[in-house]
Design a protein that fits this description.
Distance between the termini: 58 Å
Structural class: mainly alpha
Shape: globular
Largest sheet: 2 strands, antiparallel
Oligomer: single chain
Order of helices and strands: HEEHH
Number of strands: 2
Radius of gyration: 17 Å
Mean pLDDT: 86
Length: about 110
């Protein structure tokens, strides 16, 4: 039973940590895109300062290559691959307007 209790405790600790990180991420003014190694949008967090950005929730379950111009999608995929390979944070600065995103809602800010 001791092993089971340790596993349950570790699971609870991971769950608690996950909830803390999600709570912090939700407070970010800019959107945070969670994208897997295949380029699929898994989640969008943050985005509390909505005026300069369009909502990103419509991107969930879509792929970078489905919604972005090919060159931009390729650049993001390269950054994701490098990040996974090096196991290190990579900051990518980019310009992207709602007009660049296929399927972007029409009521979004331009630019």
């Amino acid at each position: 039973m001791e092993l089971l209790e340790k596993l349950q405790s570790a699971e609870q600790s991971l769950f608690d940590r996950d909830q803390q990180l999600k709570s912090i991420a939700q407070l970010f003014p800019d959107p945070i895109f969670i994208i897997d190694k295949s380029g699929k949008f898994l989640d969008v967090m943050g985005d509390t300062e909505r005026s300069p950005y369009h909502g990103g929730k419509f991107l969930i379950d879509k792929y970078l290559h489905d919604v972005l111009p090919e060159k931009k999608a390729d650049a993001f995929m390269q950054a994701i691959s490098e990040t996974i390979e090096k196991k290190a944070l990579k900051i990518v600065e980019y310009l992207l307007g709602s007009e660049d995103i296929a399927g972007s809602p029409q009521d979004n800010p331009k630019g």
